[in-house]
Amino acid sequence: MSDEKLPQGEISRRKFVTGALGVTAGVGVLSLASVVGALKPAKRPPTAEQKPPAAGDVLVYAGGTNKDQPIKVADLKADGLMVKAWPKGEVLKDKNDNNLLILFRYADGVLKEPAKVEDTVQGVIVYGGICQHLGCQVNQKDDGTLLCPCHSGAYDPRAGGEVIGGPPPRPLAQLPVEEKDGVLVVKEYYVRPRYGESVADWQTNRADASKGGA
Ligand code: FES
């Protein structure tokens, strides 16, 4: 029944009851929210194996016969084929899928803008290997480009991981590297946020990573 058909006294009583129920429900929602908030587990700090790459971390092979061995620049062919790696500080940081790295070595003159050539070593360029859309691992196609199997996101590893197709919102995150004692080492944190990382988190991780690996 609508209020228009009710006597004035009934309208006031109905409004009071409705208002009281609304207040009670609101208090209930607030209380429940407080309880849920109190029960929500605090965000755990990452373990050493989950920490993101940091300056000084050595890159090691993620698979193959050389698994867990440091990657020597001289051993990489300039064929543009993808190699998977993990960063290793005091421990191997392979307990966070987002730490998977992919690297490529190209012949002189193949890398092009917006790749940051100053952050590569003898044609070797390194990226976070996780798609910037929803976090799947990217694969390499025969033409050398990268394709994400989840929603067909495509990237060009010769051009700084630029998006060349599909839904990814930004290029792959290039990881600056250098050579130390013949092996590939992280120089500094990613040049842009990697998958799942806010700009604020990226800035924090970038500052932490510059202090050195752990
Ligand atoms: S997760 Fe890679 S395109 Fe969607």
From TrEMBL:
The keyword Acetylation does not apply. Pfam families: Rieske. The chain crosses the membrane at residues 20-39. Keywords: 2Fe-2S, Disulfide bond, Iron, Iron-sulfur, Membrane, Metal-binding, Transmembrane, Transmembrane helix. Its cofactor is [2Fe-2S] cluster. It comes from the Bacteria. Residues 78-186 form the Rieske domain. PANTHER family: CYTOCHROME B-C1 COMPLEX SUBUNIT RIESKE, MITOCHONDRIAL. This is Rieske domain-containing protein. It comes from Deinococcus roseus. The lineage of its organism: Bacteria, Thermotogati, Deinococcota, Deinococci, Deinococcales.
